[in-house]
Amino acid sequence: MKLDEYVKAATARVETIRVRTAVNPLLWLVGLVTPVSLAAAVLSDDPTVRIVCLALAAAPVLVAVVAIFLFMFYDPDRLQSEEYRLRQRALQMIYRKGANAEVVDATK
Predict the structure, then answer these.
(1) Global pTM?
(2) Which of 61, 75, 90, 91 is 20 to 30 A from residue 83's alpha carbon, by CA?
(3) What is the pLDDT of residues 33-51, one digit of tens each?
(4) In angstroms, rounded to a whole number, what is the distance separating the alpha carbons of residues 54 and 58?
(5) What pLDDT score was predicted for residue 50?
(6) DSSP-derived 3-state class of residue 27
(7) Taking CA 37 as the corner, what is the angle to CA 66 and CA 14, rounded to the nearest 5 degrees?
């Protein structure tokens, strides 16, 4: 497989991501920074540069894990998809206006 085929396959995978949550930017940061930092650590001969690169590889992962746990306990709705949150907000607005508790399609 050639490099341009890898790039096309990767961009096709990126386009299939449909769920948007509050941690998506952090996950993108992990996916971009960690492999590059690990590759730089492997290719480096200087121990100081290697340690710095490993720290740069580990930092986004740790930040993402901490953010997920914070959202999990303090604001779990932010871990839901954007579509789910919009439907939930629409239903809350309908209930505030005095609608009954029958099943309502919020997407219409």
Answers:
(1) 0.62
(2) 61
(3) 999 999 999 999 999 999 9
(4) 6
(5) 94
(6) helix
(7) 70
